[in-house]
């Protein structure tokens, strides 16, 4: 038989063990919920915009407290994987892409960096005579003929970027033989035309009717527009305008201080 002091010590140890077990169980469930939801988002099983089950539904599914579910959801929101909307629930967040300001690269690279499947769609291909307005984009000596292209780039099932491009057929006549139905003009040009210089112009714009429809966003929604002009041996080759929904895209510039300045 245990004496009184020993009994009190045993009860205290038992309580401590029960508290530890409960704490471990709480941590285990929290981590399980976190890993399960994160895995479904990263794998693409739950696409951007997918509504995640409500907290009370997850409570029943995992057999845990509302506090445990809320903690996991808060961590997912903090990590930028989900968006919590009052009265509407939680939704998988559209990944925010980043593009380097001073680089020329394929949009496919931007999309695949997000872990999403890439798709390209050609909306317009038109070969025409150069017009006075083309001089604004391709230089004062406007080309005699240009190839005008309008394309859409997708990340998963959602539109990622709209592209409008002019190619000087005076500088790059081979572009007239390319349909651009399967390959976007950007990587085609990068692979064939050695560019010597480029210019980027970045601006904030509001989506007009055409852009809103193409990007599946409300008319007037804020957009990020990048205009790029490229030259080869001082001859203008192409002007491209890329339009992104502002909430899903950002630009990054990395630089270092110049010596002695």
Plain-language structure description:
α1 packs across α3 and α2 (55-62) crosses α3. It contains 7 helices and 11 strands. The longest helix is centred in the N-terminal third of the chain and has 39 residues, at 4-42. It has a 6-stranded antiparallel β-sheet. Strands 1-3-2 form a 3-stranded antiparallel β-sheet. It has helices spanning 4-42, 55-62, 66-78, 107-113, 134-138, 185-192, 209-215; strands at residues 51-52, 82-85, 89-92, 97-100, 118-129, 145-155, 158-168, 197-206, 222-232, 235-245, 249-252. It folds into 2 domains: 4-92, Arc Repressor Mutant, subunit A; 97-252, Chorismate lyase (3-Layer(aba) Sandwich). The protein has 261 residues and is α+β, with helices and mostly antiparallel strands.
